Amino acid sequence: MGGHGGGAPAAKGSRFSFFSSMADLGRLVARSQATGLKRRLALALALVLIGKLAGVVAPLWIGKGIDYLGHGRGEVEAILIAFVGFAGAWVLLNLLSQAIPFIRDSVFTPVSQAALARSAVETFGHSLSLSLNFHQGKQTGGLSRIIDRGARSTDFLLRSVVLNLGPTAIELIMASWVLSTRYDWRLAIVANAVIVIYVVFTFSISNWRIKHRRDLNQTDSDAAGLVVDSLMNFETIKTFGSEGRVVASYAKAMGDYATAAVKANTSLQLLNTVQSVVLSVGRFLVVVIAALSVLHHQMTPGSITACILILQTVYGPLNILGMQYREIRQAFVDMEQMLDLRAVEPEIVDAPDARPLPPASGQGADLVFRNVAFQHTARSVGLTDVSFEAPPGTTTALVGPSGSGKTTIARLALRLLDPQSGQVLIDGVDLRQARQDSLRKAVALVPQDVALFNDTLYANIAFADPSASPERVWAAAEAAELTTFIRDLPQQMDTKVGERGLKLSGGERQRVGLARALLADPRLLILDEATSALDGRTEAAIQATLRKVRTGRTTLVVAHRLSTIADADQILVIRRGRVVERGDHATLLANGGEYAALWRRQTRSEATRPPPEMAGAE
């Protein structure tokens, strides 16, 4: 079999840039297609500003009430009523400032959720567009975590930047202005000095903590990837009795995660401690200044109360700012990996002038390999100067030892890979000049290891053409010798096949894969050891079916058992990436070369096997 692809290509090395990331978020919101996007954004921002203004103004009213209560003239009842009025205004404004965020969230949530969904969908779609090489070098669990965390980080960043950071800065400015103009200017200096010191310490320590968050993310992805890999390959683990070893590996991965989590949490507690010290010192200085002002009759009891409440308004956003900055930096770490993933460029892309394949002739595709060369990074030997033609309606078989390049040829015909030199053409069109959607409709593959979705038999067969009628789906199943098996199942076509189809035997999975390919009705059908997991009787039935379905299409067969391709119009013997022999079965036997030697070895081996009815049935 042809070797698999090399490692995943590296990303472009995208690093964090605040402004470019904010620009990406802005474009993401614009693409989100949220209902009433502009109206919701404007209303949410207006609500935020109203709430912040109410929070700053509210303490002034209770201050006036306290002063009136202490210095008011007239009847006690009138003084009390006036105080209740001032206090009521304070309560209402305070309530307004606290209630508005809930209203704001209900207005803005459709926007942030639409952006989250768009981010996840675009990243998922981009990952599916990447090459075979990329996915062969990535852990499925780790990749899914990158997509999930990255998408969620966009939601958080939108809420934090649009609804918290900007409005918080405005609130700090308003509160400082009120302190300096209505009360002691020294209070404004202390408040602003505390803000500056708090921000400097918060940013510095949070920047230092970023490495711990990266380590935490990496160990989390490693542990998740190990779990997914192990669950996907549990049968192999069971077969080799390796449960203990795999659990030990997972224990080590979780130990690394726990160590990283402790470091991240410890550094967070250090940050919280420093922030508390800065705020406490600030409060102490404010109290001292206020006491001096009272001694010099510069502030009234009401003014002191209003001042303290305003300072609480100032320090409240500081607490939010610290938390928001920490979380924003952590969200940017999560977003970093997603941006790196999206920076990876697909190796297989449509050319700017790509065109659809010409309409099918009804006789099959004309497949041509012209001086094709390709070498995987993980292989010492690749395809070299491979040339052949599979005329319309014919069957071409590829045989040879494992690692000779047979599967690579099949993948080149599917354009899962591009040749490093030479051309692959279908109906006269270089595949690099053909639109991929057109190519995928023209070519279908039945691999040796058929991958199925954790869905019903019907859904897996109909995946090739979701618009197909039930009659066509059943016809494809019948062509693949599946109908007897399906009708014997309690739920028939509604039977769930399990993760990767593991509830089915290898032969049953291959037949489902064959039915799926036949439903696509391709002009080029590629069979990569497509009957290797079948017993003798079923294989004979499938081979008879394949002979019938070859009519009107070109077939490329990768085979190990030569008896399955003895009737092929053309047989290519591949060794170390080169075509060393070609011809039909009779010609190659007469030549007495590698094919003839391989045929003799296999026929001697098959002569010692039990007949099909005695062979291991599924």
Q: Order the strands across the largest sheet as they lie in space.
A: 6-7-8-3-9-10
Helix content: 55-70%
Number of helices: 18
Supply the helix-strand structural class.
alpha/beta
Tell me about the largest β-sheet: 6 strands, mixed
Unreliable segments of 5+ consecutive residues = 1-14, 611-618
Q: In total, how many beta strands?
A: 10
Radius of gyration: 35 Å
Q: Ends: how far apart?
A: 24 Å
Order of helices and strands: HHHHHHHHHEEEHEEHEHHHHEHEEEHH
The residue-averaged pLDDT reads: 75
Kindly estimate the percentage of residues that lie in beta strands according to DSSP: 5-15%
Shape: elongated
Describe what this molecule looks like in 3D:
- The chain has 18 helices and ten strands.
- With 618 residues, it is of the alpha/beta class.
- The chain starts with 17 loop residues before the first helix and ends in an 11-residue tail after the last helix.
- The strands form two sheets. It has a six-stranded mixed sheet with strand order 6-7-8-3-9-10, with helices on both faces. A four-stranded antiparallel sheet has the order 2-1-4-5, with helices on one face.
